[in-house]
Amino acid sequence: MTSGVPELPLAMRADFNVFLEKAFAELNTARFLPNWHLERLARECRLFAEGVTRRLAICIPPRHLKSTIGSVALPAWILGRNPAAKIICASYGEDLAKDLSEQTRRLMNSESYARAFPNVKLEKSTDMHLRTLQGGGTVCNHGWWRDHRQRR
User: Fold this and answer.
1) What is the Cα 34 distance to its own chain's centre?
2) Which CATH superfamily is domain 8-142 in?
3) How far apart are CA 145 and CA 124, in angstroms?
4) Angle 123-114-47 (CA atoms, 0-180°, nearest 5)?
5) Which of 10, 70, 78, 124 has its CA 20 to 30 A from that of 101?
6) Which residue has the higher pLDDT, 16 or 147?
7) pLDDT for residue 1
8) CA dist 96 to 58, 62, 90, 128, 141, Å?
């Protein structure tokens, strides 16, 4: 390895953009295609995870990796850096919420994740709930809508 170049697990811990690229490779057979919008989104997510940005809304078109970044990779990265963190992931539908939770579980159970975050182990894992041994985790669920104008 070249002097001055961090090894991959260290880079995955320190740089969300590096982690995102590796997470994509773990979860997909397609090749990751870097783009400016992904680098910018990774930077904004890192600032959010570090508490510099208090609120973050991701408004980009469909099929631009919003769900993979915001509901799979970011929660896994946050839990890797702080296994006691408590995270809620919300979705419009139950099937999507289950799928995102499953992808997060697969990522966190991968060998590359274990090398980057060796102290993080999942204690409990259900279709929409992950919990670390340190008490942190994610709850993924879907929302519901009710017209409050209709009183019963």
Assistant:
1) 18
2) P-loop containing nucleotide triphosphate hydrolases (3.40.50.300)
3) 29
4) 90
5) 10
6) 16
7) 41
8) 17, 14, 9, 10, 9
